Amino acid sequence: MSALERTEKDALADIGYDAIRQGHVCSVILSGGQGTRLGFHGPKGMYDFGLPSRKTIFQLHIERINKVYNLCKNLFKDVDIPNIPIYIMTSDLNHRTIQEYFKERNYFNYPKEDIFFFEQGVEPCWTLDGKLIIESLDSLAFAPDGNGGVYRALETSGALQDMTRRGVQHLHIYGIDNVLVKSIDPGFIGLSIRRQVECANKVVWRASKSEKVGITVQRADRMWVIEYSETPSGLGEAEDASGQLIFGAANICNHYMHIAFIRDKVLPAMSTMYHKVIKKIPFWDFDKRATVSPLEPNGVKLESFIFDVFPLASEWAVMSCDREDEFAPIKNEPGNPSDSPDTARNLISAQGQKWLRAVGASVEGTGVCEISPLLSYAGEGLESYAERVISLPCYLEKL
User: 49, 158, 363, 379 - which has most CB atoms within 10 Å?
Assistant: First the structure.
């Protein structure tokens, strides 16, 4: 990276920090699912994926936001800076559990009045021939409406009104399962503000032709994301003359949105934005007089994706970031070679070791290198480790 690029990045971060100083920025964390694919019986954010500190995914996210706030306070020492509000989207599957968990953990030392839990909506399920599915004698079958349900949920829960009351203009929205996400990234927010965009998308380059991620593309003059399950045959595998993927910008559920975009353009258009997802849906068997789980897909769930609204934005931006620094999703069970707790730990460890070596420290041994988000957000503040020998495994939480 050249000196000019560093200067440019610093300038963007300054814009982002200034917005944080004014109380114009918030975090929205999408956490409506369960850890089923992980083999974990509970909300994914409560998952301990084996770091030396034993921190859960929720704790990492909250601590990064706390660190950004403290970095901002250090930049504006004589200014009273409002706390960064955090909005956490839950679902009917985990809403109460998540609230109780945060209460038990004392909100990870974050002001509880600045954490707002809101529940995503549900939609009825349908048979393959278009009839409502009955789940029991007194209820229909319902399913969460996808991460695109965040917009309507923000409105119906009062979260959007709370943002307006606080003076929030800029939303950083991301999924719970990426344990390397740079929460409230000042540079990303600063880029979006300087370009005066309505929404922006952070991407990494796809790791392979078969990676199951959406693809960010430009169609006409608008930004679109093609979900991997809906990518036309051959498009995802297309290469240029040098063998590089032509459509390689992977969507990682890391987005900026302006509150006016959500209020004025997104919410009025949400009623028509649904995808048909064929699933195995439990139903009431009148012969057995019981709810049964089918062995084969038997119905349709209606879901909207958070990126469905991107084409509504006339002003937009895409920001590329380094996969090894900002993308470590936990989706699959332990032992899986991709997107698992094991790969996430390895990526966190590799990042920590890189940060330490960058300041002149030596790293020896084997095991995980973990640096607390409260100690360093992006490798800064580690200068006192220069010329020291760090033995692995390690957990660095203070100088």
Answer: 49
Secondary structure, 3-state, 203-262: EEECCCCCCCCCEEEEECCEEEEECHHHCCCCCCCCECCCCCECCCEEEEEEEEEEHHHH
Consecutive 10-residue runs of the chain (399 residues): their mean pLDDT? 64 97 98 81 94 98 98 94 97 94 97 97 90 92 88 96 98 97 97 97 89 89 87 77 83 97 94 80 92 92 91 96 95 92 97 98 96 97 95 89
Relative to beta strand 389-396, strand 283-285 is unpaired
Q: What is the separation, in whole angstroms, between the first and last Cα of the chain?
A: 28
Domain 3-121+145-280+297-331 sits in which CATH superfamily? Spore Coat Polysaccharide Biosynthesis Protein SpsA; Chain A (3.90.550.10)
The C-alpha atoms of residue 20 and residue 77 are separated, in whole angstroms, by: 14
* C-beta atoms surrounding 395 within 10 Å: 16
Q: If you count them, how many residues does the chain have?
A: 399
Check residue 6 and give its pLDDT: 67
Q: Which of 84, 88, 110 is nearest to 99 (CA)?
A: 88
pLDDT at 243: 76
d(C-alpha 251, C-alpha 304), whole Å:
16
* Cβ atoms of 170 and 317 closer than 8 Å: no
* Type of residue found at 22: Q
- Distance separating alpha carbons of residues 76 and 18, to the nearest angstrom: 9
Measured distance CA(267)–CA(283) in Å, rounded? 32
Nearest to 144 by CA among 96, 90, 100, 99: 90
Phi, psi (degrees; rounded to nearest 5) at 112? -65, -25
The token pair at 90 is: 């839950």
Answer whether 318's CB lies under 8 Å from 325's CB: no
Distance, in Å, from the CA atom of 87 to the CA atom of 248, rounded to the nearest integer, reads: 31
Domain residue ranges in the chain: 3-121+145-280+297-331
